[in-house]
Amino acid sequence: MKVLKFGGTSVGSVESLRNVKQIVEACQGQVMVVVSALGGVTNQLIDMTGRAQAGDAAYEDILVQVRQRHLDVIAGVVPVPQQQQCNAIVEQFVEGMSSFCSMLCLNHDLPADMAANIKDAIVAHGEIMSSAIVTCLIDGAEPHFSPNFIKTRRVDGADTLDTDLTRRLIVEHLGQSKAQRLVMQGFIADDADTGMKTNLGRGGSDYTAALVAAALGAECLEIWTDVDGFMTADPRTHPDATVIPSMTYEQAQRMCDAGAKVIYPPTLRPVAERHIPVWVKNTFNPSAPGTVIQ
Ligand code: ASP
Ligand code: MG
Question: Could you give the CA distance from residue 240 to residue 9 in angstroms, rounded to a whole number?
Fold first, then answer.
């Protein structure tokens, strides 16, 4: 079994989503597909919650844009017979976000922790909507809701992964599935004590995918992104930069810690512990060999 994670740019457009479908459906054996929100949507949702909380009615314009973006993508990639159902799912989530936003906008004296919970619940909709679209797109996909098995707890004021509980719940929820293709959200989680939506931090979808790969003992983790792999230097400033074909976990971890944006830094540890190879591959250039970390 393989775990394939698709980042925001990979699920961000009609063209890239067509590639996602091809890549997943070409896999032999069981595939766990972990998705980010459509590229840019998490930023928009954070901006929207800030405006709603500040009483700025411009939040409604952002919601209109987010809604339209998802409906346009559905019209472009989802097979016609499933479009209506997929649109209805998105509309329902947009309505949910709209009522959360008016709660923030109209209640200026909400306790800070309650406002923070509402904001996290809104932001989670980015991955919830993208995963709904990817589920409609991929033949035979079985949807799973990550907050049912990715659990955080409040530690020193921060949402922190409950590693043991999460590992056990991943095995319980996903380990029995006979489906060939499973789709789930990256990034989002539930607080194990309160049941409120939380998340693993910006860029956290990579981490979700690594946790699933490690708990299930996957044969590999593939991080599908918009570059050909780890590069010897930043290609925007060093046009002669080349792809590094193979690295150790330590080398890759050092590059991530030093700010290479390719992988979210906490990602490598769970897979390194289980000696699961990680491939960094380009959704826009799937035949490029990519970088393998092992
Ligand atoms: N959508 C989230 C973010 O933009 C998580 C992710 O993409 O990994 O940070
Ligand atoms: Mg990322």
Answer: 24
